[in-house]
Amino acid sequence: MGVSGNNEVLVTTKVVVDYDRASELKAFDDTQDGVMGLTDAGVTKIPLIFHNPKNSHHDESDDGSGSTQLSVPSIDLVGVAEDPATRKVVVEKIRQACETWGFFQVVNHGIPLSVLEEMKSGVNRFYEQDSEVKRELYTRDPLRPLVYNSNFDLFTSPAANWRDTFYCFMAPHPPKPEDLPSVCRDILLEYAKEVKKLGSVLFELLSEALELNPNYLNDIGCNEGLTLVCHCYPACPEPELTLGATKHTDNDFITVLLQDHIGGLQVLHENRWVDVSPVPGALVINIGDLLQLITNDKFKSVEHRVVANRVGPRVSVASFFSTSLQPSTKLYGPIKDLVSEDNPPKYRETTVQGYVSYSLGRGLDGTSPLPHFRIKDF
Q1: Best CA proximity match to 257, nearest among 97, 103, 77, 99
Q2: Do the Cβ atoms of 236 and 310 come closer than 8 Å?
Q3: What pLDDT score was predicted for residue 143?
Q4: Residue 313: partners with Cβ closer than 8 Å, 6 or more residues away
Q5: By C-alpha distance, which of 262, 287, 289, 291 is closest to 276?
Q6: Which of 40, 210, 271, 312 could be disulfide-bonded to 235 (CB atoms 3.0-4.6 Å)?
């Protein structure tokens, strides 16, 4: 290495020495104002804690060919409850989507458009509250009835994401209404009820796609738990340096996502990032790690991310079907009807709590927790 190379090493070392990441993270968290506080303050350069180690929009998973030629499957659920022929076609489309994409969008899903729009409005109202009001709810205690903070993995992830989040556990133990913010209380309760109904329908269709009894996944408790996770992705002055959400998989059975018109969600498909473009009135469904585990890899939990955007704030509501950190002794492993001598179990049994605790402890580090639960022979 020449002189210039040595100089580069020295400069790099100096930057690392001068930058106390732990102190910066604590200072950001102590404001209790989140990313929204930075945008409200008019920042034009994003703090170093948000700089993604890799070039965020073009990492090792990109092949340079772009994502415009592909689109996530869209499935129309109209008539699935009334017409057996329609249901059979829908089940086959869902099977193909779960085996190849791990993602699909549904239209005519039964949740009124007015409820979807009010849910997005409710999330916006929450984040538009005065800072003093939101600070009262800011917490790092994951089991509070409502948790609001910026980056659940702020102190463990390689880079902070450009987003704020609030979430609440809506099932199996719903919160007291008074524990929810008044600006979105009613719609949180109504939306949770509607999504729970849709979840039961989706688990029936997924069961049939696995050639199981329609009630199978509901009967084993896949629809027992529900968490509403409400994200806000403020406008970012330097979106090329960070991400709204790092590449990850979801640690649940399925996720039902409501996103607004701005977009930014991308799914990794055939080694390229594909935009999950917003469709008015549609909901995005994706397979979670726990469903991949119990289907013994038949259905795929696929990596996805959210890119940062100069436009914002973008809001989304991810409904996680999982009992999450709720105490439970129920074990989940590969479904016996799906394994055989030729297709032996690939995963060891785990509780939902055990899986989620392991996943959350690692943060969004760009890799899936599933290999940790894989039987060594695979």
Answers
A1: 103
A2: yes
A3: 85
A4: 36, 39, 124, 127, 232, 233, 234, 235
A5: 262
A6: 312
